[in-house]
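User
Here is a favour to ask of a fellow structure person. I am asking you to supply a protein in sequence and C-alpha cell form. Please set it down just below, with no commentary around it:

Assistant
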Amino acid sequence: MGKRKLVIKRLETLKERHAKFSKRKKGILNKAKEFSVICDIDLALVMFSPSDKPVTYFAHDKDLGYFVEKMEKTSARDLEERRESTNKLLKKIFQKNVEAEVDVRSFSADGDDTVKVQEAQLEEMKNRLDERRKALEDFKNPRNVQDLNQIKSMKEHLITSLERIQKKKNRLLGKYQMERVINASSGPGAVNLAHGTFGDKN
C-alpha cells in the first residue's frame, strides 16, 4: 500500500477544525522554536485558533514590541517584495508536493482574490505600524499628546508593561530568597532540622 494522499481543503465542521488545529499547533510551535535556535534568527509566530484565540511564539524571549520595531524599520516596498517572494515560494511548494492533491488551476483562479485579501492584510499591518510609530513618538513627548483616546491607550500600555515588570521582579525576588534560604541552611551555623542540632557546636 502506498501513502495516502493528503487533500488540502477546508474542514467542514468547527469541531474538526478545532481538533486539527490542536493537533498541528504543537508541531508548528516546536518547528518554529527549532528553526530559531538552529539558524539563530529572530522569529515571530502568530496564529488564531478556529475560535479566534491568539497563539503566539516569539524567539529568544523577545516580545511583540521588538518585532514591531523591526518591521517599522523595513520599508513598505521591501515588505511588498518579501510578500510576493513568499507567495511564489508557497505556490512552488504546492505545485511540487506530490503527496498533496492540490488543484493548481483552482489555485491560480483564486489568485486574484488571494492577492486582494493579502493586500488588505498588508494595508492593515501598515496602519498598525503607523499607530505604533506614533505611540512611540508620543511616549517620548507625552506633553504634546492632545488626543484623549491616545492617552488612554498609552496608559493601558504602561499598565501592561508594569504588570510584566512586576511579575519578573516577583520571580527574581522568589529566586533570590530561595537561594538565601539554601545558603543559610548549608552554612556553618545552620540548623539541622532533621536531628534538632545546631552547626558549629563545640
